Amino acid sequence: MKTLSSTLGAVALSAALAGSMQDAGAGVSQAVLDAGAADNWVHTNGNYAGQRYSTLTQINTANAKNLKIAWIYSLGGRNDAMATPSYYDGLIYVPQDNKVYAIDAQTGKGVWKYEYKLPDDWGGLFADFMAGKHRGVALHGDYVYFLSNDAKLHAIHMKTGKAKWVKSFEGFQAPRDFAKAKDSTGYLCTVGPMAIPGTIIVPMNGTDFGGRPGYVLGVDPETGNLKWKANMIPGPGEVGYDTWPEGSQEYGGAGPWIVGSYDPQLKMYFTGTANAYEWNPKHRGGGKMDNLGAASIVAVNTETGKVAWRFGAVPGDYLDFDVPQTPILIQMNGKTVVAQPNKTGFIHYLDAQTGKFIKADKFADKVNWTTGMDSNGRPMNVIPLPEEGGAKVEVWPGLLGTVNMYPNAYNPTTGLFYLSASDYGMMYGIEPIKVVSNVRHLGASWENINGPEVDQAWNPATGKEAWRIQRDKPGYAGGMLTTAGNLTIFTTQGGLFQIADATTGKVLYSMELGTAAKAGPSTFMVNGKQMIVQAVGGLPGFGRDEQYPGLNFGSMVVAFELQ
Amino acid sequence: MQWWNRAVLIAACVLSTALDPVRADDAAIPDSNPLSGDAKAIKEGRDWYQNVCNVCHGARANGETARGGRAADLRIFNRGFRAYVETVKRGRNTTGLAFSMPAWGGVLDDETIYQIGAYLETLAIDGANWKEGKSASQ
User: Fold this and answer.
1) What does the alpha-carbon distance between residue A86 and residue A533 come to, in Å, rounded to a whole number?
2) How confident is residue A250, by pLDDT bands cut at 50, 70 and 90?
3) How far apart are CA A209 and CA A251, in angstroms?
4) How would DSSP label each residue in A136-155?
5) Is the full-model pTM beyond 0.95?
6) Has the ipTM of the complex gone over 0.85?
7) For position A166, what pLDDT does the model report?
8) Which of B44, B50, B94 is most worth mutating to test chain A (most A CB atoms within 10 A of its CB)?
């Protein structure tokens, strides 16, 4: 870790000139974090509420057809590009393959590249699948906060690309090479942190890599020291502790593997959590115990790090119907509401302060795993647990979900959600659990029943669909962006970048980007011009590649502006 | 030998055994799967396959991998039983691909590998060959 005297000088100067944040007055100040997405895009999901909504109107329904490509930057990635690009003060920041790229937004030229090498003993059982994937970075003060796959937080200076520190957190080891290590359980992080004034919120996911229990950490932006850690699985004395058999919490899973949302009045951070581990529920109550904290929406008090409430969306889940989707904050009937479109095919609405269930909208075309939610939000008539080693059962939606990790958006002007959805199903079976290098296996297997990508607009007030663009191929759009210019912007699974009228769904602009999209775009102002930026590249995967003949792997960032 | 020397020697032997993955001598791999057709082996092999192999090779062993691109279609594996065992134990470092097959030799014992092979034989389609004892390196 180098300390550059010039960096310190610059920080001191900026601190003298700018900002009002308590502990660092420079760069991305509290005012910038609070402002949401307009001139800058400093949060992965646009604003604290996770809405991926920009107030910019320079590009709008009247002129979107006049868009052109401004530049293309090649990331040279070896795995899917999953990051929403962040932007502040002239530089775009994109994480990929355990590197962070800073790109000049005006010219598209690389300014610096931060490279991190995973440890030599890296390599949990499915680690290959995830290595190199990152959903975004956080910006705070003068630093870019980056979470490498091995659960380390890096504070990288925005202008120089040099790390002030790299912190690992005790108890959150990375998965080790399962072919060599006796215990290859660990935390594999593919999401990004979130910055709130004075704290970097860091999701720690260990689900499916040995079932390490999920945590959300609060970290000091200056020092990297741990301020608090919030356990997703309830501990002794917490509500729901008795919904797990004694001892099963240690391999419980419930990782918070998305970038969450934040309410500055309530001082709460909201996240969805992954499934309990193993998928075969025999060690955690056989589907009859609720396993609260897994497949749940969890609210963390950001002052104390204590969990304020947990809502179990899929109690005792054995279908891999976890809900690691961003709980988006919206206003409904004068209250702040957590609204989470999730894998299950439903959008769950909860009171943000108390976690109390309000309603659930079924937004998937076909759902057979439940007949619906009761007045407390509990799923009714859940499809029975398949017999271990027995025949597979047909379940809709499939376990990748009606929505997955491709982020959804909400536009307060239109009042609509924009969902990267897919209406597909699966054949699902429960298997005996095998253990390799102390990694307890999933104990399940599945096959997809392919269904179409559906780029879907949904009205939370009416509980009805507003419009859809249904594709003739399977998969998900990479992620949604929506603006006050009445636009909804995304790239399809097959690589078609589109801008649609946010109210009607009419397509205003299209451009083939030539590779699969696994990420959502962002937008911001550069020298008086509004730009839209999309990281793109990957393969559809999950048995869908054959539906996309001629679609090959790519890895780049594409920037658009008006002609 | 002093008692403590012997203790250190024993400890070193135990430690080295624990650290080195046990790998059968390649010359000891039979030409064909001794567990072929064995119902119990097939069941056990299926359970192992669905736990550790299906993520890359697909639930139906046709190579449709979750992560995109293709792994080998095991239904048409045709390099014989010995090559199968060697490949599983050593892994494959296929140039040009972002992902390689891991080396399972340190974590799966021979019997488990043979059981998985017995299961895969039941999925064989036209063109598969599990019998001939060709080495993977030929």
Assistant:
1) 9
2) confident
3) 10
4) --EEEBTEEEEE-TTSEEEE
5) no
6) no
7) 98
8) B50
